[in-house]
């Protein structure tokens, strides 16, 4: 009898587990994880970009996501509390004539509006450019362009892309995608008169003279039309072109234009998909990586463009600070928190806790360039092999602030709050009701 | 001087007179015994007339009524063997003599019944019924017409049990000693001289005031004459106590209660001189304790006035009750059954317990002058294997729940720590959130199941599985009536229902 009573008392004294604590913990997490929603793609999240520029929606945020196999475009809408849903209006890219999607397609955000642009191979033998706001619509393809005087066969796979402001015949400048394939730069503007229609422009370094293997494009603001930065994958040279030369040019030699500058980058030959990210009016970040088949060398380096306001000297391109050469870089984005600027660099093959799970490194960008030691490291708290964490990164406007979004294999992470390695905040929680 | 001479002469005369008388008595007894043995032998040989004569000789030598009974039984047997009405008549006559010689004969009813049957048989033999149409023809030469003497005894006479008896004779010198049979606590059996029938082995205790107690063992043979003669030696150092109580049959303890009861009231016996302590007790009455100084050669009365509340009897019986303990109101009443005890009137709780059996308990109301009989049937206690199994299962489930709970808590603590530290920050899709939740829910569910299982085990422990122990209660009225006996008066109880 006594044993029985003791047993009952002991059993009654065992505290029951409050499983709702895990719901509370779920709410306390400041990283939102969204598994592949109900989209047709089997490989969700090969590219991500902000869905709007923060002015369209009063609250929350939107993230555009490209999936592969088959290609899809969809958007995740984040509520002010951070909850995500799949927005209606997802579309299959094949319906837009894009039947072939690159492994790492370009998904660019317009600096002017909420528009985004997807640049990929598209149909076999052609380059597809699709733009839109909260949707994508294929723009005129420029392959087999005749603007160079004769029919030019352009490589079907885009090697670089960027948005640039270009002057218009009348009215304010417009931001349009600029695409490079091989040594040719292509514009997609369609609203220009035929005489001024954005041409295909073949770039040659006439000092050699050799065609420029364009592996990255960037733009810096300089007048009505942005100047264009070109990164040569053949010799690593970085060129600065006056953007206006692309209007009507048939071929552009490096030395022919007075305002074309070049600089030899530190012996790094960028591969396909390398990026030139705009930091400010005169500063860019080179995020270069080798083609996957060639290696995993990487480069992060800040460059500054120095103009002679009097116009007597050619602009100069100068590296700022030291490069970051951590291997495995695949993509990067610039985050401006208002207080500081950071580069969010994705290393999807990085080994974490013994697993090839991938990670994202955050470097602070200061006046003296990149801080070579990452101020924060993000990876899945439960890393898994082939997770490809960081295969795409983006900065998403959310509640009027910028937050980090990271794509992994069929999973999207959004950091509504970020903490630096020293325990201080990269940015505080951006969600409401927390 | 003259009176002294007269006294001496008288004593001599008495002594001379007593000695031959005692010698004559012994001779007569020997003669009776010889005749008895002779009669038994002749009876067995079928010489019934001789046997009857020898039994008569024995009676003539010592007039024990049993000898007359044997004479009658011998004729009775002879008559039945030969359907002899003459023998039957002799048997009837001798049965009458027997009843006259022993008016208190314990078998009077049987003897009178035998006389009645024998008379009817004689009548039947002398007045045979006419032969029926289908009956057997009369034997040739029989002068009687229409009457047929019966060839065999009637059925009724055959039913009568008849046999000659042995005889036990208990005598003492001096006579008038109290005879106790087997145990003094049974009370006095008779006084010497006594003759009668006994069977089996018995201890005979002879006690007489002023004489040493005589104890002898006899093995009575129902076909023999057995003589027990006790010569009692004077004991001047003993006193004589006469113990009585207002409640007859009260237990008597002398000097040491641990020895047990020496008898029941009324009781008279010798006791060594000096101070003695007496306890007299009866069920339902307060015990009486008396200190008495016993003086040699004097009679010391011990009278107990028992007082007590009205009582009723409780009689607990049943199969296997001898291994059961009977308790009343939580106190053991009888270590073993069957249990017959007096209880004060009123409500009581009786509990009957036996190892490996279900207890039987019930409230009973004892009424005065009644006997409450409870026949208890104890049911075997069921095994507790199911309870033990359920306890083990509950323990296992509890352990499993604890393990799951610890796992859930570990996940919770890790996540809390990592969320706070942010290096790396767990995300909302962190598998540990789901795992921990599943563990927590599983732990709660397992605890709940363990709790239910434990309660079930507790229920199994105390549930009354199987048929309960039962008792059949029967209340009988005890008639109380005044009772008078030699040397005492009190109340006696008879039972009716």
Structure, briefly:
The complex is a heterodimer of chains A (434) and B (497). By secondary structure, chain A is mainly β.
State Rg of chain B. 41 Å
Give the % helix of chain A: under 10%
Number of strands of chain A: 36
Main β-sheet of chain B: number of strands, strand sense, barrel status? 5 strands, mixed
Task: Give start-end ranges of low-pLDDT stretches of chain B.
Answer: 1-22, 131-147
What is the count of DSSP helices of chain A, taking H or I runs of 4+ residues?
2
- Content-based structural category of chain A: mainly beta
Mean of all residue-level pLDDT scores of chain B? 81
> What percent of residues of chain A are in strands?
35-45%
| Helical content band of chain B | 25-40%
Quickly list its features:
heterodimer; A: 434 residues; mainly beta; 2 helices; B: 497 residues; alpha+beta; 5-stranded mixed beta sheet; 8 helices; 23 strands; 30% strand; elongated
How would you portray this structure in words?
The complex is a heterodimer of chains A (434) and B (497). Chain A has two helices and 36 strands. By secondary structure, chain A is mainly β. In chain A, strands 11, 12, 13, 14, 15 and 19 form a six-stranded mixed beta sheet that branches. In chain A, strands 2, 3, 4, 5 and 6 form a five-stranded antiparallel beta sheet that branches. In chain A, strands 25, 26, 29, 30 and 31 form a five-stranded antiparallel beta sheet that branches. Chain A starts with a helix and ends in a 7-residue tail after the last strand. The mean pLDDT of chain A is 84. The radius of gyration of chain B is 41 Å and the shape is elongated. Chain B has 497 residues and is an alpha+beta fold. In chain B, the strands form six sheets. A five-stranded mixed beta sheet of chain B has the order 18-15-21-22-23, with no helix packed on it. A four-stranded antiparallel beta sheet of chain B has the order 3-2-5-6, with no helix packed on it. The N terminus of chain B is likely disordered. Chain B has eight helices and 23 strands. Classes of the chains: A mainly beta (434), B alpha+beta (497).
